[in-house]
Amino acid sequence: MIEILHIINSLEIGGAQKLLVDILPLMNNEKMKVSLLVLKSVDSSFYTRIKNSGIEIFSLNSGSYHNPFIILRLIPFLRKFSIVHVHLFPSLYWVALANIFVSTKLIFTEHSTNNRRRGKVGFSFIERYVYRQYSKVISISSQTQLILKQWLKVNEIDSRFIQIDNGINLNDFLPSNKTINVADASQFSKIVLMISRFSVQKDQETVIRAIPYIPVDGVLFAFAGSGPTLEKCRQLAHELGVSDKVVFWGQRTDIPDLINASYIGVQSSFWEGFGLTAVEFMAGNKPIVASDVAGLKQVVEDAGLLFPAGDEKRLAEAITHLLVDKQYYSQVSAKCWDRAKRYDIHHMVEKYTRLYTNILSGIYNE
Length: 366
Fold this sequence. Notes:
Blueprint: E1 2-8, H1 15-27, E2 32-38, H2 45-52, E3 56-59, H3 70-80, E4 83-87, H4 91-98, E5 105-110, H5 121-131, E6 136-139, H6 142-152, E7 161-163, E8 190-195, H7 204-210, E9 219-224, H8 230-239, E10 246-250, H9 255-261, E11 264-267, H10 276-283, E12 288-291, H11 296-300, E13 305-307, H12 312-324, H13 326-340, H14 345-360
Parallel strand pairs: 1-2, 1-4, 2-3, 4-5, 5-6, 6-7, 8-9, 8-11, 9-10, 11-12, 12-13
Helix pairs in contact: 1-2, 1-14, 3-4, 7-8, 7-12, 10-13, 12-13
């Protein structure tokens, strides 16, 4: 039996964490045992879902992700598993350094096209050293891989770098008759929904600034998620006089039901590695309007609609067109559903499983 340990900073709400919630139960079977190690325990719906699926979760209970003593505490875990699959920084660094004393086969998944280390001269040499410690580096989109290779200055044909697109369970987003438990929605005929953590990256502010330019009545602009920029967005809605059209639903665990109840999905971001939420909207047969940025563009282009990042007027035009033109709405929805089928999570799990087997067999070229 192959034993795989996934390592991530924590199970707080995020795209990489959502990926693990979805794929780990599908990987855990009679031929493969998967476990999860978190640097820091966080009480979240993601933690509960993985635990309830029968996946063993270890925790270092570290008070800070950035504590270098994590390196020493990782060593015993690296010795126990055939392959260790790492997600996110600083787990990326700590596992690479801990493995100097162990020599376990390591895999890292790159989840974003951008981070605060990129472009800083001091990190260039460090990053090249760290990434060399991994047998395989997986990127979740073609653009993610391209930008990472440019940053690390690696050869275009370096076989350590491969692409495995993110996926979702399409069955989770089939139409249902469930009534969502939310306030302030009953008086509106259509819901424009954005599901994202509130952060500078996600840019909910542009969506709020677009609302005054959308001359359609009976539309509720809903935001699901929490994070550091939430209060700033509340204040912006008040300043623009659109608070009566905006609702903040907080952190939700019923995402498929929210998407099913919505009319249009929006993903406004300044950067993305992939755009998992965009795929979820498309799987729910909803048109997605997304910012034209690396990673997200490759998922949405020629199916949903793209607008220049931060351009509230272009965003408003795209949303308005979908609201007022039913035939156009149906055409875009159909294209989105067709695109979503490319990202069936079972394809992703199959590729990961084959990769693990090949690495243990000494076959590195995909």
